[in-house]
Amino acid sequence: MEGQALAEKESIRNHISSNSKTNDYRHGQYKITCPSCQNERSKNRRDTPLSVNINSETIVYHCHHCGINGAMPRTQGVKMKAVKTEPKKLVKIVLPPTDNKGKASEWLKTRGISVEVAELSGCTLTEKNKKPVIGFTFEDASKTVAVKWRTCDSEKLFWWDNSASRLWGRQVHNDSLPTVESTIVITEGELDMLAIKEAFKDHSNIDVYSVPNGAPNKITENKIDPSEDGRFKYIWQDRELFKDVDKIVLATDNDKNGEILASELSRRLNKARCYTVNYKGHKDANELLVHTDSETVRNQVLNAEPVPLHGLNNIDFYADEFQSLYDQGHPRGITTGFDSVDKLFSLQTGYLTVVTGYPGDGKKNVVTGVDVAKSMAFFSKCDTGLTVYRGQGTVDIHCWKARWQWQSSIGVASLTFNPLNGRYAEAEEVEDSYDWEF
What we know:
Number of helices: 12
Radius of gyration: 36 Å
Structural class: alpha+beta
Strand order of the largest sheet: 10-9-11-12-13
Largest sheet: 5 strands, mixed
Order of helices and strands: HEEEEHHEEEEEHEHEHEHHEHHEHHEEEE
Shape: flat
Helix content: 10-25%
Distance between the termini: 66 Å
């Protein structure tokens, strides 16, 4: 049987290797012909019933016609075929000198950003096709390898000379200023990066970068594989930047796409050290700078709020509950209908109440519920423990366990029972002669 299974897998592997859809073992889901049943079929011989799923480690196959199925290592005993791809031709980058007094410089100033900050951060300001543009340069070993261009107008057009999968932003520190230690700010756009740099330029040094490709339209729910994480490749390319960083401020836009980007980045950078910025009703950091001032931008960045962690909330989350507790005290719960019993306990959702007593003494009549008296495990876990005892002319309800003093207290309440109408009534208080403390 083992030899037969090995022969079957070898046949499947050879078939996958010879099929034009799967011969390069590229990751994906494929439908191809089945070597086990194809030649035996009298009809639909061109059918592709064999489902093949190839991932980074395994090949899983299943034929929906003959039922043959199994899994095997993706690379074991396989000589991987190289995929021939034409290398993309790189454009030779020749940067024009920055025009400090041109239309691009004037437009940048309307966004609250100085030419000085732009140049230090790796920008070039010029004109292309008689339009003012700003170029965001990407460098490798002090050599410009790519430029992302943007028109300096409301059209907001982008294009690339070459391409880059790195975070954008040259970090130049002023030795005369303090540095915000162990902190990195990531923005959704280049102008937001420049706006934050502008806000901090005379205050302190802070490392700020922009993602190179904006925000996605939807959240990816699949398991993150760095080797296939194409859109967020820049995170893995620049992972050394985050190695010893305690705080990562995600200064993404105040819209749906910005929230999606913040969520995706926090998944890859560890949510426990990620923070988000409140723009006080504005769209992004640049808009906040334009409509307020540098001090406001600094305060919002430095006082960024932690990304919420599931099940973990700060004290502000419980503000309404604290106020209610202060104003109204502890809630008493649902009344039993009898004042003497209400002094002992009240019923509340989320609490376990155990009612015990001799058969026929009225447990179910006093409190509607399930008799769990036979389970000693409930005695240690319950919040309120009651015992019902039918005496001479009265039914005594003894509260022998009270975990929360605002819900119950140890003691006894007595009721009289009228068998003619099946109703209880208040009885005169009696002295409890039992010691119910445990």
